[in-house]
Write a structure and sequence with these properties.
mainly alpha; globular; Arc Repressor Mutant, subunit A; TPR-like_helical_dom_sf; WH-like_DNA-bd_sf; 575 residues
């Protein structure tokens, strides 16, 4: 009887009139929790989390933490359920890197359980987050995986609309306007079919963005205003901030700076009302651009510093590219060329890591493969239907019955095989994604090692110079010894070797078997050559001079008996 009362209380709460005071409702839920059993406590905490997430995400997180504590103790609910809520929290505070991590964990759980419906949603969500942080190749791959699953399982057009929406953004970002507009038209059909005016506003905003890229500013302005009119009516401040930002940028392009400023300030207000960090950061960046154009460089830097802080916090690398570009212009305007150069280099570094031509080509290649496979499946299905009709025309009633039975058995077998192949394919894609992630970690670790050693070597030289100038040399000598110790620290190399072995399995053992005369230092050099690093990067990691690298490569060629016509790099890559 003691559990009946709290269960009944919670039931009445969930079905109370919608105009009940929120605080009273929350207090009532809290009061019932001490009397509930664990599984119901988890549901109550999640209910509190849902109610507080929009207005007070930090408080909502404390409720979710309480639910997770009970789950870890009892495991009386689905871990994927709580993980999904955690992803929503990180998305609310615009921590997209954490959203990506939690979504990958959800995919691993649902792959294990072969939950295809959930996987369709998870892959779409993962792709959507990855396009926000500029990982377009992975984003396209995952959204297309999701779309394929949805088509195979017979999802509604409304469900596919979210995939179309993300693909519009991805292809727009890599300037494949034709493909972006294709998916936008598909999404527009869905919105019109279901009379979804909210999303129709986003569709029109997308058309406007693409027209702007094509420099058709009149059409772009028309669609931006149509979109803004709907969002104003529906008080959708998140999308409204985006509309105003786009209109501000449009008028910046036309050098109508006063009109541009008016729209951008409205965008900032809408972004602050919606409390979405991403929109606020974008608006601040645009205001920095505007003030650069007006020659108000110090004011531009104020806006840009605020934008940079938020962009770093939410890991918005793509926005940082434009922010650093605007910083460069501002400091050039102030004739602070050292600062301008620093931001120019920071911009180039991020841009090179995101917008590589290979990634763009890979995305387009994925799209072609997806469309080709889809058409092949349609053709195969039509041919199968024709074959069945021809057979039905030739056989008698008894044969039809027999054939029908066999066909049912065959279809059951075929479905089982297809499901198994699908699971194997998804598992392979998961393994490939993990390997790609490890390769990125390995490269990052190697470059970090090179940079660290480069900085330490520079610091050591500076200390040496100061030591020779100063009378008291003991302090500088101690500093130099400390730097030498760090430069020669094998722990850094052991960490690197662990990453390397995870990506290039059995490389070291293969080298030792084939070339037993190779020393441990030469094995290090071979590993770095395998990663295709530059001589300068290898020199920094091994803490030797550029001339030393040349000598080490020469000795290695002799030991491996490589002729002058053969390439050491090609040999290493083949191992």
């Amino acid at each position: 009887m003691k559990f009946f009362i709290p269960v009944l209380s919670l039931f009445l709460l969930l079905h109370s009139p919608i105009n009940a005071q929120e605080n009273t409702e929350i207090d009532s839920i809290k009061n019932t929790i001490p009397f509930q059993h664990d599984s119901l406590k988890i549901k109550s905490y999640v209910l509190l989390f849902d109610k507080k997430l929009r207005k007070n995400p930090d408080l909502a997180k404390t409720y979710l933490d309480s639910a997770n504590t009970i789950y870890k103790k009892t495991k009386k609910t689905n871990s994927a359920f709580l993980l999904n809520k955690l992803g929503k929290y990180y998305n609310r505070i615009s921590n997209y890197k954490k959203v990506e991590e939690t979504t990958k964990q959800l995919i691993a759980i649902n792959l294990k359980n072969n939950n295809q419906k959930r996987l369709a949603t998870d892959y779409k969500n993962l792709g959507n987050i990855q396009q926000k942080i500029g990982n377009y190749e992975e984003a396209a791959k995952n959204v297309l995986i999701s779309l394929k699953i949805k088509e195979e399982l017979g999802f509604t057009d409304k469900s596919k609309g979210s995939n179309y929406a993300t693909l519009v953004k991805i292809y727009g970002k890599i300037n494949n306007i034709e493909k972006s507009n294709f998916y936008n038209s598909e999404w527009e059909k869905v919105c019109l079919k279901y009379s979804d005016t909210n999303r129709l506003a986003t569709v029109w905003n997308n058309y406007a963005v693409n027209y702007k890229k094509l420099k058709d500013y009149n059409k772009a302005a028309t669609f931006f205003r149509k979109s803004a009119a709907i969002n104003e009516k529906n008080k959708n401040y998140v999308n409204l901030a985006n509309n105003y930002n786009n209109l501000g940028n449009l008028y910046l392009s036309k050098d109508s700076l006063k009109i541009a400023e008016n729209y951008l300030l409205k965008a900032l207000k809408a972004g602050e009302i919606s409390d979405r960090k991403n929109e606020i950061a974008v608006t601040l960046n645009n205001l920095g651009n505007l003030n650069n154009r007006l020659g108000n460089y110090n004011k531009a830097i104020d806006y840009l510093e605020r934008s940079e802080k938020i962009s770093i916090e939410i890991n918005h690398r793509l926005l940082l590219i434009t922010t650093y570009s605007q910083f460069t212009k501002a400091y050039q305007g102030l004739k602070k060329f050292k600062n301008a150069l620093a931001y120019y280099r920071a911009r180039s570094s991020i841009k090179d890591s995101i917008l590589k031509k290979e990634s763009v080509d890979k995305i387009n290649e994925l799209e072609i493969k997806y469309q080709t496979e889809k058409k092949e499946q349609q053709i195969a299905l039509q041919e199968k239907e024709i074959t069945v009709l021809e057979q039905q025309a030739e056989i008698g009633t008894l044969q039809k019955i027999l054939l029908g039975g066999l066909l049912v058995i065959s279809l059951i077998g075929f479905y089982g095989i297809r499901q198994k192949l699908k699971r194997n394919k998804l598992e392979k894609e998961k393994v490939d994604a993990e390997l790609a992630f490890k390769k990125k970690e390995l490269t990052t670790h190697a470059l970090h090692l090179a940079k660290k050693n480069e900085v330490l070597e520079s610091l050591k030289q500076k200390a040496q110079e100061l030591k020779e100038r100063e009378e008291s040399k003991n302090g500088y000598q101690q500093l130099i010894r400390t730097i030498n110790f760090d430069l020669q620290d094998d722990n850094n190399w052991e960490n690197f070797s662990r990453y390397f072995e995870e990506v290039h399995k059995d490389f070291n053992s293969n080298v030792k078997i084939k070339y037993p005369q190779v020393t441990s230092n030469e094995l290090r050099l071979l590993a770095l050559l395998k990663m295709n690093l530059s001589s300068k990067e290898i020199a920094s990691i091994l803490n030797i001079s550029g001339e030393g690298i040349k000598k080490a490569r020469y000795r290695l060629r002799k030991k491996l008996d490589i002729t002058t016509e053969d390439s050491l790099q090609d040999l290493v890559l083949s191992l």
